Amino acid sequence: MRWIARTFLGVFAVGWFCSAYVYLKSQQTINRSHVPEPRRVALVSGDDIQSEGARLSKVFGCVSCHGDRMQGQVLYEHALNGRITAPNLTQKASNLTLNEIEAVLRQGIKPDGSSVFVMPSASFSALTDRDFSAIYSHLLQLTSEGNAPKPTDYGLLTRYRIVRGQLPAAAEQRLTQPWRDTFRDSPRRLGEYLATVSCSQCHGSDLQGIDTLAPALGRLSNYDRVEFSELLTKGIAPAGREVAMKADLAAQRYRFLRAEEVDAIYEYLKQR
Ligand code: HEC
Ligand code: HEC
Questions:
Q1: pTM, whole model, 2 decimals?
Q2: Where in the chain is the domain with CATH 1.10.760.10?
Q3: How far does the centroid of ligand 2 lie from the alpha carbon of residue 12, in Å?
Q4: Could you tell me the end-to-end alpha-carbon distance of the chain, in angstroms, rounded to an integer?
Q5: Considering only CA atoms, which residue is closest to atom 16 of ligand 1?
Q6: Helices (H), 174-218
Q7: 232-258 b/e (C-beta count within 10 Å ≥ 16 → b)
Q8: Whether the CB of 245 sits within 6 Å of ligand 2
Q9: Which residue's C-alpha comes closest to atom 2 of ligand 2?
Q10: Cα–Cα distances in Å, from 271 out to 191, 220, 237?
Q11: pLDDT for 222-268, tens place per residue?
Q12: CATH architecture, domain defined by 182-272
């Protein structure tokens, strides 16, 4: 009987040490401090900038994660993975300075210097000052809500993914410097910009695909312009084929794209 007890204790001890290692190692990454690049944002104002911000917060996915009124929500909860929450932004924005919001959004660095996780700041690193201004002014005029969803609490499996580098600190993933707003007349460049800020969140920084998330975005040889628009803005694939997530993405994000933006993305993906 003794050896059974010993084996059991041994397995238990190894399990305990492994968990402790994953916990401590991931916590190091989570706590790691980053210094944001100091940046002067050329804030753009104007009558239509707030409504543009509301539109972009849909197209770029803020609303999909932070909730339709940006009131915050639990994105994911699972025994082994733990809980991931997109925080309530309706009060945050007015408590943070312009530079603090810039650092979170485009550099992935929170006011305490730690990195965000899950929040796709690497994709947002491309945001132009104009689009940043639009989103910023939209954040400032949100109706304050007291709602406080239960905070993020990483489970063992999520911590393991952090240790493995599968869930990276966004502050260490920055793709690019903010784009200068000089591309809007070129459909191909506009398409590249929109794909970088939005599609790359799932399809990867170079649209090469992300394991477990979304496939590589090839050259779309099987889509013509109209079919592509139907897929993106209505979630309908040719011949009525089911494509995972596209209906939700169309409803939450991409039906808010302008026709010329959809064309621009098509143009870019075609010529890549
Ligand atoms: C894929 C989901 C997702 C998307 C898309 C997303 N966020 Fe987030 N956001 C998160 C999560 C999760 C956090 C918490 C990150 C952390 O603390 O590690 C967060 C944190 C934030 C914070 C920091 C709040 C704080 O703790 O100080 C701000 C500000 C923010 N998001 C704004 C935005 C805006 C604006 C957009 C759109 C341009 C956006 N987010 C898009 C998931 C998302
Ligand atoms: C929230 C994650 C997410 C975002 C953001 C996203 N996609 Fe996807 N996309 C997916 C997933 C998941 C699939 C695979 C669906 C399947 O195979 O059933 C996919 C598949 C596709 C396909 C292939 C469809 C087919 O024929 O099988 C195309 C084309 C596509 N996406 C284009 C885009 C474009 C363009 C954007 C940006 C405007 C974008 N996606 C943004 C998740 C995303």
A1: 0.94
A2: 182-272
A3: 43
A4: 67
A5: 116
A6: 187-194, 200-203
A7: bbebbbeeeeeeeebeebbebbbebbe
A8: yes
A9: 202
A10: 11, 10, 21
A11: 899 999 999 999 999 988 888 888 999 999 999 999 999 999 999 99
A12: Orthogonal Bundle (1.10)
